[in-house]
C-alpha cells in the first residue's frame, strides 16, 4: 500500500486527463487551480516524470501520462460501480429491530401496506428487547419501548404506553366479579414486580398491597403476559390499545376505565446521520401517518404525580 500514490492526486489526474484543462478540473472537483497543480506535481514526483505538457489554454498528456490515464480511469470506474452496487443493495432492503409486543400486535398486521407503497424495498423485521448498537449491528431502524432518551439517536414517539389491569372474563367471574380495584389482589398477579402495578394501584386509591411478597414470575414481554392473561392464568397490566381485538372477542377484559401514563412509549429510533436515507425517510413518513389514523392513540390517561419506580420486569 505504501507504493500507491495518494488517492486525491489520482483523482485530480483523472479529471485533468479527461478535461485537458487544470482550471476545468479544479471547477469539477471544487478545488483551486493551485491545489490541482500541487496534486499533479506530487503524482509526477511519484511516477518519475512529467504527466502533462502545459500549453497556454490547455494541457496535453505526455507518453507517460497516456500510459497511466486509462488505468486510473478504469480503476475509478470500478470503485464507482462497486459503491453503486453496495448502495443499491443497502437501499433495497430495510432491516427493522422491534420489540415483540409492537411487532406482533401492530407492525406485522400493517406492514403489508408499507410494502405496497415500496414494492422494491425488501423488509426484514427482527424482534428483540435488546438495545441495538447501530454502529455494530446491521439494522437500519429500531422501534423501542421506554422514555425516548437514548443518547446519539433521533426518536419519534409512535404510541404512549398507557397501562391498566386486564384479565379473562371467566377469571373475574371466579371471584364473583371485579367490582373495585382491591378485588384484583384476590387473584394471581402476572409479574407483580412490574413497576406499573404500584403506580396503577396508587392512582386507583389502593395503598396497601402484597405485591412484594408474591412469587416474582417474569415472562419478559408484554405480549407474553397478555397471552397468559387471555388464557386465564392471572391479571396482567397491559397497554389496552394493543388488545382491542382480544377485548372484542371476549378473551380479555378491562375492568376499570383508569389508565395511567408514566411517560413511557414506543419510539421509532435511528442515528441522526441516517435521517435522509430514502428508505428510512419512507418508513418514517408511512408509520407516523399510519398511527395518526389509528383510533385510541390520543385517549387521555392519568399521569402519576410521584416519580416512577426504576424500569424493570418486561422488555415490551
TrEMBL record:
- Name-wise, this protein is LysR family transcriptional regulator
* Every HTH lysR-type domain range: 5-62
GO BP of this protein: DNA-templated transcription
Disordered: annotated span: 295-316
UniProt feature, compositional bias: Low complexity: 299-316
**Family the entry assigns:** Belongs to the LysR transcriptional regulatory family.
Name the UniProt key words of this record, in alphabetical order: DNA-binding, Transcription, Transcription regulation
Top-down, what is the taxonomic lineage of the species of origin? Bacteria, Pseudomonadati, Pseudomonadota, Alphaproteobacteria, Hyphomicrobiales
MF terms (GO), sorted A to Z: DNA-binding transcription factor activity; sequence-specific DNA binding
Answer whether the UniProt record assigns the keyword Transcription regulation to this protein.
Answer: yes
Which InterPro entries does the protein's record reference? LysR-type_TF_proteobact-type, LysR_HTH_N, LysR_subst-bd, WH-like_DNA-bd_sf, WH_DNA-bd_sf
Statement: the UniProt record of this protein carries the keyword DNA-binding: yes
